[in-house]
C-alpha cells in the first residue's frame, strides 16, 4: 500500500454547485484528495437533497433526510450552510474564495456578480484562482441566458436522434439515455479542464476562467456519429441496439432472454460464425469484411437472429468467450453488483454515516497505483461542517458562528 498522499492533497475547492454536473466534477476532485467545501442554502441545501424517494435508511429501516440522488455525487465533501443572498453570507463566501485554489459554480450567467462572487471580482484578489462555470449553453452566444437541463440538452445536442428503436419498428422514436449523460459528461470534461488549468498554474502562477456548457459537451460526445455526419453529409438515424458502423454489434434475442454480441473486426466475425455453426458466412463475399456487412446488414442480420434464438444465453456467452468474441449479458443493477468482476473491483463500498450508521456508495473508477483515491467522508449532512470551516478557515468565534446561525 502506497504511503503517498492523494494527488490533489492540499488543494482547496469551493463548491457553489448543485444537482449533478457540478457536484460530479467536485466529487472527482474530492476523491483525488482535494479539500472540497460545498456551500449550500440554509434550510434547503442542494436541490437533490429532496429528489426522492428513495432515501437512505437509518439503522431501524426508516427513511432519513438523505436522498439517494444527493448521495451519488457528494462524498468526500464538507457542507457549509451560508446564505449568499445576505451581505454577511456573501462576504464569508468571498473570504473562502480568497483562500481557495479552485471555485466551481453553476449559477445562471452573471448570477454571482451581484454578490461579488464572479470571476472578474475574485480574480483581482486571488489571481491564482481557477474558476469553472458550468451552464446549459455557456457564457456567450444567443442562448447564454437560457436555463439548460440534461433532458433537453440530450434532445438539442443530437443524442436522442440516434437513441431509441428505428422509427419504422414497434416502439420506435426518440429516447433519452437512462442516466443524465449530458450532466455527467460535462462534469467529467470540467474535471479535465480544471486539472489542465491547475497544471498551467504550476508554470505561470495564474488561474483562469473555464467556461463549460452542457450543449458543447453533448455535441462533442457524439464522437464517431459527428464524423459520420460530417463525412457523409447525412445525419445518422436511430438504429435501436444496432451499431451504425459495425455488424454484428447488437442485442440478440436468445431462447431464454437477450444478450449482446459486439464483433469489432473480421477475425472476430469468423470466430463468431464458427461458434454459431454458420462458418460459411465468414467466406461469403457479401459479408467477409465489415464494410460489406454494414452495406448488407439487412441480409445478414436475419440469418444471425434466427440462429441466436435457438440457443440459451449462458451457452452462447461461454462459447463466445472461449472463442475470443466480445459478448455479454444485459444486467439489471442488482445483477451488476453481484457480478464477480464488479465485486472484485470493489465498485460498491460503505462509509460511516452520522444518521444511518453507514451509507453505500459507488466506487470511483480511478485507479492510481501510487496515490490512490481516498474515501474519507460520506456525503455530508446539510451544514454539517459550517462551524468547523468558519472557525478553522476564517477564524470566526463561537459567538459569531452562533449569531450567524441565528440570522443576526
Any chance you could write out the topology, listing elements then pairs?
Layout lengths: L11 E5 L4 H11 L3 E6 L14 E3 L5 E5 H4 L5 E5 L5 H12 L3 E4 L13 H7 L4 E6 L14 H7 L24 H24 L3 E6 H7 L3 H9 L16 E6 L2 E6 L3 H10 L14 H6 L1 H12 L4 H11 L3 E3 L3 H4 L3 H5 L3 E6 L3 E6 L23 H7 L5 H8 L3
Parallel strand pairs: 1-2, 1-6, 2-5, 6-7, 7-8
Antiparallel strand pairs: 3-4, 9-10, 10-11, 12-13
Structure notes:
- This protein is α/β, with parallel strands linked by helices and 408 residues long.
- It has 2 domains: 12-221 and 342-405, Rossmann fold; 249-335, formyl-coa transferase, domain 3, CATH 3.30.1540.
- 35% of the residues lie in helices and 16% in strands.
- It is built from 16 helices and 13 strands.
- The protein has helices at residues 21-31, 68-71, 87-98, 119-125, 150-156, 181-204, 214-220, 224-232, 266-275, 290-295, 297-308, 313-323, 333-336, 340-344, 386-392, 398-405; strands spanning 12-16, 35-40, 55-57, 63-67, 77-81, 102-105, 130-135, 208-213, 249-254, 257-262, 327-329, 348-353, 357-362.
- The strands form 4 sheets. A 6-stranded parallel beta sheet has the order 5-2-1-6-7-8, sandwiched between helices. Strands 9-10-11 form a 3-stranded antiparallel beta sheet, with helices on one face. A two-stranded antiparallel sheet has the order 3-4.
- Strand 1, helix 1 (21-31) and strand 2 form a beta-alpha-beta unit.
- The longest helix has 24 residues, at 181-204.
- The two termini are 49 Å apart.
- The model has no long low-confidence stretch (mean pLDDT 95).
Amino acid at each position: 500500500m502506497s504511503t503517498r498522499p492523494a494527488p490533489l492533497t492540499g488543494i482547496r475547492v469551493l463548491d457553489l454547485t448543485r444537482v449533478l454536473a457540478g457536484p460530479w466534477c467536485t466529487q472527482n476532485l474530492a476523491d483525488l484528495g482535494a479539500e472540497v467545501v460545498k456551500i449550500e442554502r440554509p434550510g434547503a441545501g442542494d436541490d437533490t437533497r429532496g429528489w426522492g424517494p428513495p432515501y437512505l435508511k437509518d439503522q431501524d429501516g426508516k427513511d432519513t433526510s438523505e436522498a439517494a440522488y444527493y448521495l451519488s455525487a457528494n462524498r468526500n465533501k464538507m457542507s457549509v450552510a451560508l446564505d449568499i443572498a445576505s451581505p454577511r453570507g456573501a462576504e464569508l463566501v468571498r473570504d473562502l474564495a480568497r483562500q481557495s485554489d479552485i471555485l466551481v459554480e453553476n449559477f445562471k450567467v452573471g448570477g454571482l456578480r451581484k454578490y461579488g462572487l464572479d470571476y472578474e471580482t475574485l480574480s483581482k484578489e486571488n489571481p491564482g484562482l481557477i474558476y469553472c462555470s458550468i451552464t446549459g449553453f455557456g457564457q456567450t452566444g444567443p442562448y447564454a441566458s437560457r436555463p439548460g437541463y440534461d433532458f433537453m440538452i440530450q434532445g438539442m445536442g443530437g443524442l436522442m436522434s440516434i437513441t431509441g428503436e428505428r422509427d419504422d419498428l414497434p416502439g420506435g422514436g426518440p429516447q433519452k439515455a437512462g442516466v443524465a449523460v449530458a450532466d455527467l459528461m460535462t462534469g467529467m470534461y470540467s474535471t479535465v479542464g480544471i486539472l489542465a488549468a491547475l497544471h498551467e498554474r504550476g508554470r505561470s502562477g495564474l488561474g483562469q476562467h473555464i467556461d463549460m456548457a452542457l450543449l458543447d459537451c453533448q455535441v462533442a460526445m457524439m464522437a464517431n456519429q459527428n464524423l459520420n455526419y460530417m463525412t457523409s453529409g447525412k445525419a445518422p438515424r436511430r438504429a435501436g441496439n444496432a451499431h451504425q458502423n459495425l455488424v454484428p454489434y447488437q442485442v440478440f434475442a436468445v431462447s431464454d432472454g437477450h444478450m449482446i454480441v459486439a464483433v469489432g473486426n473480421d477475425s472476430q466475425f469468423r470466430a463468431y460464425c464458427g461458434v454459431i455453426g454458420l462458418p460459411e458466412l465468414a467466406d461469403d463475399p457479401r459479408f467477409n469484411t465489415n464494410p460489406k456487412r454494414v452495406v448488407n446488414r439487412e441480409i445478414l442480420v436475419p440469418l444471425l437472429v434466427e440462429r441466436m434464438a435457438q440457443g440459451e444465453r449462458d451457452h452462447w456467452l461461454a462459447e463466445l468467450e472461449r472463442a475470443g468474441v466480445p459478448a455479454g449479458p444485459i444486467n439489471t443493477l442488482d445483477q451488476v453488483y453481484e457480478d464477480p468482476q464488479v465485486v472484485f473491483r470493489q465498485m460498491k463500498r460503505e462509509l460511516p454515516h452520522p444518521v444511518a450508521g453507514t451509507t453505500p456508495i459507488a466506487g470511483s473508477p480511478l485507479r492510481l497505483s501510487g496515490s490512490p483515491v481516498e474515501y474519507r467522508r460520506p456525503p455530508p449532512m446539510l451544514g454539517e461542517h459550517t462551524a468547523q470551516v468558519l472557525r478553522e478557515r476564517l477564524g470566526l468565534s463561537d459567538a459569531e458562528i452562533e449569531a450567524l446561525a441565528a440570522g443576526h
